[in-house]
Amino acid sequence: MRKYLRRLIKYSALFSLLIAGSLIAVCTFFIIGIRPKRVVAQYWFRALLFVLNIKLEIKGLNKEVEKTFLVANHISWLDIPVISACLPVCFLSKSEVRRWPVIGLLARFVGTLFIARASRRAITKVNQDIQESLLNRQTVCVFPEGTTTSGDRLGNFHPSIFQPAVEISVNVLPVAIRYLDAKRNTTTAPAYIGGMTLMSSLDRIIIEPIIFAEVIFLTPIDPRGSKRDHISKVSKDMIFNSLFK
Q1: What is the C-alpha to C-alpha distance for residues 20 and 127, in angstroms, rounded to an integer?
Q2: End-to-end CA distance of the chain
Q3: The domain over range 2-244 is classified in CATH as 3.40.1130
Q4: So what's the pLDDT on residue 92?
Q5: Cα dist from 85 to 40, 45, 54, 169, whole Å
Q6: Which is more confidently placed, 1 or 146?
Q7: Residue 129: exposed, middle, or buried by beta-carbon count in 10 A (0-12, 13-18, 19+)?
Q8: Residues with Cβ < 8 Å from 78, sequence gap 6 or more?
Q9: What residue ranges in 99-244 does DSSP mark as E strands?
Q10: Three-state DSSP class for residue 153
Q11: Could you give the count of Cα atoms lying within 13 Å of 191 in the half-sphere of its Cβ?
């Protein structure tokens, strides 16, 4: 019975929030600049977490975080709202998100960079876009694993995605994400894996009484004098040690 009640309340509130977000995106798409849009999105994502009863816990965030190259472990589509609620940021996302109802519109609204994962040539164009964003002093976040896990491990980090930060010597900032249940145990409820659909994943989150989203901003890595393979390994090790040791 409680699950049905949670569905009723949360889905109703979520529908209203999505309508509001769409209206804001449409009405301001050509009026305000990209940074104000990301600030607006930051508060919208905070409202989203409130509706889903996800408690955001931020550690290590300071002013030096801005205008850096963030790299995070990847568990769920929820990672994007969670990090976006922390600070205005530009994301690299799979091209399929562009076509998602409402979410695709909101992603384009904040200037999300899209990559066709099936294309080997796509990484060259994406790296150019990332480098341009970094040169414009924007904060960019990527998920070097390139796919999601259930949160109990880290996949391989792809060194090629680190190339823009290495080329222009922008600090790389590892970010560790984990989700906890009401008893503060690690939960796989937000995991978006396998053949799971967006709606089935959303429903798994909605029926939970509460989820804690812990976002840990670690120590920035200066890439000067280092190769991308080294930066990739150091980033992965730092995230791994933060989550599993």
Answers
A1: 33
A2: 38
A3: yes
A4: 84
A5: 10, 5, 11, 26
A6: 146
A7: middle
A8: 54, 179, 190, 192, 205, 213
A9: 113-115, 140-142, 172-180, 211-217
A10: coil
A11: 15
Q: Which residue has the higher pLDDT, 26 or 187?
A: 187
List of residues 6+ apart from 86 with CB closer than 8 A: 42, 56, 58, 61, 215
**What is d(CA 225, CA 75) in angstroms, rounded to the nearest whole number?**
31
Residue 38 corresponds to which tokens in the numbers above? 């990301």
Which pLDDT does position 94 carry in this prediction? 78
Question: Cα(141)–Cα(161) distance, rounded to whole angstroms?
Answer: 11
Residue 209: both structure tokens together: 């009484």
88-111 burial: b if 16+ Cβ within 10 Å, else e: bbbbbbeeebeeeeebbbbbebbb
**Rg over CA atoms, the chain:** 17
Q: Is residue 146 predicted with pLDDT exceeding 90?
A: no
Side-chain-facing half-sphere of 237: CA atoms under 13 Å: 7
Q: How much of the chain is in helix, strand and coil states, percent to nearest 5? A: 45, 15, 35
Q: Concatenated DSSP letters for 47-97?
A: HHHHHTTEEEEEES--GGGTTSEEEE----TTHHHHHHTTS--EEEEEGGG
Spell out the domain ranges in the chain: 2-244
Identify which of 143, 216, 146 has the alpha carbon closest to the alpha carbon of residue 179.
216
Closest among 210, 209, 193 to 201, alpha carbons compared: 193
Residue 130 has pLDDT above 80, yes or no: yes
